[in-house]
Write a structure and sequence with these properties.
FAD/NAD(P)-binding domain; binds flavin-adenine dinucleotide; Helicase, Ruva Protein, domain 3; 19 strands; five-stranded parallel beta sheet; single chain; Elongation Factor Tu (Ef-tu), domain 3; 417 residues; alpha+beta
């Protein structure tokens, strides 16, 4: 019997769910309606990775890739193994998008144009007659007997046999993802876990750091100690407001539920030399001082910290930058080593409105991980960021959206997965 399948939200997960239903040929028996509040589908897909669209990760081993999700990795396992990063790449390449994997293992279209990714879906939807309702905001969803009733913001009602909620999170709200799906899910009996911004930069109070805006480091260890310890090693960048970069984003994901504000500041420890212990660093510096006593100390420290940061650290510790290495007092050396291993910064806020994703979402215990169907409300499916799943930067969030969207499509298409 022909069914009406309504998809609310034309982002990565919604588009992949619709495309998979088409590829399973389930569109021949069913009508697929895709509702999107924007004038276009795939807005976030296009802006991800700085507009180049970081489609997925180049990490081949699904187990390894799953370690990059602070929340939801266990739940995601089935969807991820059914459509791992390698298969996501293969799928797009089979749809004529050439991809490349960069040194940091992020995967992009060779064209560096996210539109190429979205065009794959346009092509599929045209061919399979998916009915896309652009500029249509669903305002309400409720169940009536075995069917769902969707009401648009214009007051129009639509009946559907199955609904797929892929409305995303509530980060970058101007892209259309405003958290509506949480409300729909609650009205259908689901619970939503605490929501928090994730993958954000931090504002800091130290003026000296902001003055070093543009300074970057390839590998530092960041640590925040509250009741729990959060730690991540990777690249960072100082900005005119604070601190950003892949390691900062990852740390913000791990510590997403820690409040950080002027009233509740957090101390961030930066280890600029994570591969060396205090002892190794002390020995190395003592050796340099001994062999080249006439050299200026700031030149040696500059090599370990960048010239500009070394100058700032000397100023902060009131150490004469003209000083010859041979004249270094033990106390001064200890202060410098402490700066190299444990510079402490005060975080006073999360980069307002700049987070990439929302941590938290639909309670995973209420969703079947093998089908993405609600355990509470048959015929209701969830995919993408609306779920309580979040990953680090590097293609992991889109990967989760593709994988969960694919699994929904397969479940509805009723084929083996
Ligand atoms: C700036 C930025 C950069 C990013 N970079 C990366 C990256 O490099 N790699 C990565 O993996 N991830 C990245 N992400 C995260 C990634 O883009 C998202 O996690 C992913 O797009 C989520 O997909 P989704 O389908 O779940 O939701 P979304 O893409 O958010 O799609 C939801 C859609 O639902 C629509 N919608 C919502 N409510 C309604 C309603 N009531 N009626 C009709 N339509 C509605 C919205 O308009 C939207 O189009 C980035 C995010 C941002 C904001």
């Amino acid at each position: 019997m022909s069914q009406i399948i309504a998809i609310i939200g034309g982002g990565a997960a919604g588009m992949m769910a619709a495309a998979t239903i088409c590829e399973q040929k389930a569109d021949l028996e069913n009508r697929i309606l895709l509702f999107e509040r924007n004038l276009k589908i795939g807005h976030k897909v296009m802006i991800s990775g700085g507009g180049r669209c970081n489609v997925t990760t180049g990490i081949h081993d699904p187990k390894e890739a799953l370690k990059r999700y602070p929340r939801g990795a266990k739940f995601l396992r089935t969807a991820f193994h059914a459509f791992p990063p390698d298969q996501v790449m293969e799928w797009f390449e089979n749809h004529h998008v050439a991809l490349k994997t960069e040194k940091d293992l992020r995967v992009f279209p060779k064209s560096d144009n996210g539109e190429d990714i979205v065009n794959v879906f346009h092509e599929i939807f045209r061919k399979h007659h998916v009915e896309i309702h652009y500029r249509t905001t669903i305002a309400e969803v409720h169940k009536q007997d075995d069917q769902f009733v969707l009401t648009t913001s214009e007051g129009q009602t639509i009946l559907a046999d199955k609904i797929i909620l892929t409305t995303g999170g509530q980060a970058y709200r101007h892209t259309g993802s405003q958290g509506d799906g949480y409300r729909f899910a609650e009205s259908l009996g689901h619970t939503v876990t605490e929501l928090a911004p994730s993958l954000n930069s931090f504002m800091v109070s130290e003026q000296w750091l902001k003055e070093l805006s543009g300074t970057s480091f390839q590998k530092v260890r960041l640590k925040i100690i509250r009741d729990k310890k959060y730690e991540f090693t990777g690249p960072i960048l100082f900005t005119h407001q604070g601190i950003t970069g892949p390691a900062v984003f990852a740390l913000s994901g791990l510590a997403a539920y820690e409040p950080v504000s002027k009233d509740q500041p957090a101390t961030l420890s930066i280890d600029f030399h994570p591969d060396q212990t205090y002892e190794q660093l002390t020995n190395e510096l003592n050796h340099t001082i001994k062999t080249e006593p006439q050299k200026q100390l700031i030149v040696t420290i500059g090599k370990l910290l960048t010239k500009s940061l070394a100058r700032t650290i000397f100023e902060l510790h009131d150490i004469n930058p003209e000083k010859k290495q041979g004249e270094t007092a033990k106390k001064e050396l200890n202060k410098l080593i402490e700066s190299l291993k444990n510079t402490q910064i005060t975080l006073i806020g999360k980069g307002a409105g700049s987070e990439f994703i929302t941590a938290g979402g639909i309670n995973l215990a209420e969703v079947n991980p093998s089908t993405m169907e609600s355990r509470l409300c048959p015929g209701l499916y969830f995919g993408g960021e609306i779920l309580n799943i979040d990953g680090f930067t590097g293609g992991f969030n889109l990967q989760a959206a593709w994988a969960t969207g694919r699994l929904i499509g397969k479940s509805i298409g009723n084929t083996k997965y």
